[in-house]
């Protein structure tokens, strides 16, 4: 399924995609901490991105982890553009710093991320 471009008109969804592009996999609690958004709103954004074909989810115990879906080349170009400046660099740096400082971050093993 080709991802729906309309859903990334929202700035929070663009930040989610940019963060996934650089972090590879992020769980809901990490998005809440890194992007300073309340959990119900974050879950809604993630559901819209998942339903639109941009991201996929996997469950590990109580955690739901998200990563970018297998995307066509045009969609990866969009993602690359978000990371390169479509999402302001200070906002992305701040989200990554908040994420790195988040004490409740679940641990992952490399084979589970791939």
SSE topology sketch:
Blueprint: H1 11-23, E1 26-27, H2 28-35, H3 39-51, E2 55-60, E3 63-68, H4 73-86, H5 89-101, H6 110-113
Key terms:
114 residues, alpha+beta, Arc Repressor Mutant, subunit A, three-stranded antiparallel β-sheet, 57% helix, globular
Summarize the structure.
The protein is of the alpha+beta class. The chain is 57% helix and 12% strand.
Radius of gyration: 13 Å
How many independent structural domains?
1
Strand content: 5-15%
Low-confidence stretches: none
Question: How many strands, what sense, and barrel or not for the largest sheet?
Answer: 3 strands, antiparallel
Number of strands: 3
CATH architecture: Orthogonal Bundle
Give me the strand/helix succession.
HEHHEEHHH
Tally of individual helices? 6
> What is the CATH class name?
Mainly Alpha
CATH superfamily: Winged helix-like DNA-binding domain superfamily/Winged helix DNA-binding domain
Write out the strand line-up for the largest beta sheet, numbering strands in chain order: 1-3-2
The termini sit apart by 21 Å
Q: How would you classify the helix and strand content by structural class?
A: alpha+beta
Shape summary: globular
**Overall pLDDT level:** 90
Portion of residues within helices: 55-70%
CATH topology category name: Arc Repressor Mutant, subunit A
What does this structure look like?
This protein has 114 residues and is of the alpha+beta class. The protein has helices spanning 11-23, 28-35, 39-51, 73-86, 89-101, 110-113; strands spanning 26-27, 55-60, 63-68. It has a three-stranded antiparallel sheet. The radius of gyration is 13 Å and the shape is globular.
């Amino acid at each position: 399924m080709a991802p729906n471009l309309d859903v990334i008109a929202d700035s929070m969804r663009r930040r989610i995609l940019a963060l996934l592009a650089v972090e590879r996999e992020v769980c809901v609690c990490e998005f809440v901490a890194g992007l300073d958004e309340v959990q119900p709103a974050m879950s809604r954004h993630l559901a819209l991105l998942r339903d639109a074909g941009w991201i996929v989810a996997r469950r590990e115990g109580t955690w739901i982890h998200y990563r970018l879906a297998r995307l066509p080349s045009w969609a990866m170009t969009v993602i690359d553009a978000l990371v390169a400046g479509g999402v302001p660099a200070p906002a992305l740096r701040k989200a990554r710093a908040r994420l790195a400082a988040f004490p409740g971050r679940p641990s992952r093993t490399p084979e589970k991320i791939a």
